Amino acid sequence: MEELIEILEDLHPEVDFDECDTLIDDKILDSFDIVTIVTEVNEVFDVAIPAEELIPDNFNSAKAIWELIEKLQDE
Amino acid sequence: MQTNVLEYLEKIAPVFPDKTAYANDTDEVTFSQVYSRSKSIGSFLLSKGFEKEPVVVFMAKHPNSIIAFFGAVYAGCCYVPIDEEMPRHRVGLIFDSLKPRAIICDDITWAVVKEFDYSGSVFKYDDICEFEINEKALETVRNAQLDIDPLYIVFTSGSTGVPKGVAACHRSVIDYIEQLSDVLQFDSDTVFGNQTPLYFDACLKELYPTLKFGATTYLIPKNLFMFPIKLVEFLNEKKINTICWVVSALTMISAFKTFDKVIPEHLRLVAFGSEVFPIKQYNLWKKTLPKTRFINLYGPTEATGMSCYYKCDRLFDEGEVIPIGRPFRNTQILLLGDDGQEVREGETGEICIRGTAVTLGYYRNPEKTSESFVQNPLNNAYPEIIYRTGDLGRYNEDHELIFLSRKDYQIKHMGHRIELGEIEAVVNMHDEIKSSCCIFDDDKKRIVLYYVGDVSTKEMAVFLKAKLPRYMIPNVMQQLDTMPHTANGKIDRNHLKKLYKGE
Predict the structure, then answer these.
(1) CB pairs below 8 Å between A and B: how many?
(2) Residue B460 with chain A: CB contacts under 8 Å
(3) Does residue B348 sit in the same domain as residue B302?
(4) What are the two backbone dihedrals, phi and then psi, of residue A50, each rounded to the nearest 5 degrees?
(5) Which chain B residues contact residue A5 at CB under 8 A?
């Protein structure tokens, strides 16, 4: 989880990723961020996020992204 | 001969009165609604004494904002679209250079404008879109309008930190729409899926052909561009058959293997531009949609939308570059060398544009205008302005134009044109900053900021977000103890690039 937070903080140092659960709803993340996150997650965690998992609910909070990574790692 | 873009609307409204002209995911307006409401807004502005001046349209992206544009034009004014998400600082700079007397808002931006130091008039769209139409007043204004009068002003990044307002006249836009429609082959069955913001010239491709042909434009919700499957489903649901998008929006779909799950079913035409299309991604699109036409477009805002096109009729090999091809009819490209003369076939030169599509220049900025809107150096017989793009190009063996690079520090990022100097100028506004420099990582498409000064990257991010649009915020920020300099005292960008790659 810490490594994920680091990736996110590189993109938005001013956001509190432990707390925020409206990353998409409040337009904090944009399409560039999503592309970067997917690329970095692939590099750091060796997990490829497939297109069908690219939905708002999976990206609204750091926790949601982390749960997605864990789910994909288990598969 | 057509001399006003509104003639498109006036011809088509009686033909397709009840057809949808512009829509988003929830709302839509018909051609007759566009026609009557824009005339209402025009009549209202005239009743308040606004004529032949810039009218700011400060609204969220919505079919109504397009009606507001045409409303301003009915009053003989030019429209200035401003992004509702633009930081206050930047809107303030734009107001400084425009000194607008009238702003049209929606319910949300209404509250935002109140926070500005602005003394002019502010009108709510909903309050004026049903105003009583004054045919006589509209006719008087129209009779006095010429096709060389400005139609819109859009703002583009300026290297000194102040955005430049590019003003384009009716004649340039009509010329562009006619030539573009010829090549792209729009018709009344065309259903556009608009991606680009309404505050740039890129949306001309959808807004005006919709009127010319009685086509339909869907403004696609911005957040769909983060979620590729939902995006393609939207295209299919709305039967969108024509898209003119920036490359990054297209690669977002193909790179995530979206086509394994869902394929755009109705696309007849994919036009793309503003950036280089990675060949691997282009080939994925081309193979998935073999019957769809793919067209590469190239052009600066200063020459009204797009100037060149290339019909991509084949797959490309890795390492190949998709040409920008040839200019639209009634536009000429000159490749000029440092001596101001045309370079020889195959040699590199600066891409310069001549033709009706060359815009009027930068609004209230004669200095910047005279730097790039210049007398054609090949013509010493009479006044003739060409636009120097600052882009370098050359012709390949098949006499197709190829874009090579920039002469300066302008970059293309997420489809937006950005002067790295503008970002640096804003960084340097921070009291603690001693020195700063931005470089662009072309491979990963990241803006990288280096700075010297006692400011945390967190503080810097907050500072910049208050002053710059989202797409100009550096993706990587790094504090340095000292800035590297070259022997002659300039910031050593090459050293910074090495430093960045060594990370």
Answers:
(1) 60
(2) 13
(3) yes
(4) -75, 160
(5) none
Phi-psi region of B415 (alpha: psi -120 to 50; beta: other; left: phi over 0): left
Length of chain B: 503
Please tell me the pTM assigned to this model: 0.92
Query: For chain B, how are helix, strand and coil distributed in percent, rounded to 5?
Result: 35, 30, 40
Condensed to tens digits (0 to 9), the pLDDT of residues B283-317 reads 999 999 999 999 999 999 999 999 999 999 999 99
Q: Which residue reads 């295209």 in tokens?
A: B235
Domain-terminating residue out of B122, B144, B167:
B167
The number of domains in chain A is 1
**Confidence category of residue B473, pLDDT binned at 50, 70, 90:** very high
Q: Which pLDDT tens digit goes with each residue over B195-211?
A: 999 999 999 999 999 99
ipTM of the predicted structure?
0.85
Closest CA to B13 of B170, B213, B182: B213
Residue A58 in contact with partner chain B when CB distance is under 8 A: no
Contact with chain B for residue A50, Cβ under 8 A: yes
* pLDDT value of position B503: 56
Question: Do the domain assignments include residue B207?
Answer: no
Q: Which residues on adjacent β-strands are paired with residue B375?
A: B385
Distance CA B281, CA B110 (A): 42
Q: Residue B399, by phi and psi: left (phi above 0), alpha (psi -120 to 50) or beta? A: left
- Residues B382, B429, single domain; the answer is no
Encoded tokens for B458: 């967190």
A35 has a chain B CB within 8 A of its CB: yes
CB B105 within 8 A of CB B115: no
CB of A19 within 8 A of CB of B466?
Answer: no
Q: Is B224 helix (H, G, I), strand (E, B) or coil?
A: helix
Which residue range forms the structural domain that includes residue B464?
417-501
Chain B residues within 8 A of A29 when measuring between CB atoms: 226
Same structural domain, B430 and B380: no
A11 vs chain B: nearest CA distance in angstroms? 6
CB contact under 8 A, B249 and A27: no
Side-chain half-sphere exposure of B233, counting CA atoms within 13 A: 10
Within-domain flag for B185? no
Supply B70's token pair.
């045409």
Write down the residue that tokens 């280096």 correspond to: B450
Nearest beta carbon to residue B226 from set A13, A30, A52: A30
**Residue pLDDT, tens place only, A29-66:** 988 888 889 888 988 899 989 989 999 999 999 999 99
Tell me, what CATH number does B46's domain have?
Answer: 3.40.50.12780
**Interface with A, mutate which of B86, B220, B227 (most A CBs under 10 A):** B227
Residue B484 confidence (pLDDT) above 70: yes
- Structural domain ending residue among the three candidates B408, B441, B475: B408
- Is B151 found in the same domain as B45? yes
Asked if pLDDT for residue B491 goes beyond 80, the answer is yes
